[in-house]
Amino acid sequence: ASADSEMAVFGEAAPFLRKSEKERIEAQNKPFDAKTSVFVAHPKESFVKGTIQSRESGKVTVKTEAGEVFPMNPPKYDKIEDMAMMTHLH
């Protein structure tokens, strides 16, 4: 079965559940550093993306809103069907 026929059961929602081939290729080629890309807990948005600026004596400086820091998955995992393939689960 092709990817399109698998997604047909979701009707109008299908485009929101899986990236297009073009978007998947762009995400795989997007620069990503697993050591500096993180999610930061945010009181209103749940989590926001952040980039670690520095690490010193157990303290991390992140470029974004303040909060608890969690590792972020590479863009190629956006909308992935099998969450077992993800590097980090939150």
UniProtKB/TrEMBL annotation:
Gene3D superfamilies: Myosin S1 fragment, N-terminal. Residues 33-82 form the Myosin N-terminal SH3-like domain. GO terms for molecular function: actin filament binding; ATP binding; cytoskeletal motor activity. PROSITE patterns: SH3_LIKE. One of its GO terms (cellular component) is myosin complex. InterPro entries: Myosin_S1_N (IPR008989), SH3_Myosin (IPR004009). Keywords: Actin-binding, ATP-binding, Coiled coil, Motor protein, Myosin, Nucleotide-binding. Belongs to the TRAFAC class myosin-kinesin ATPase superfamily. Myosin family. This is MYH2 protein.
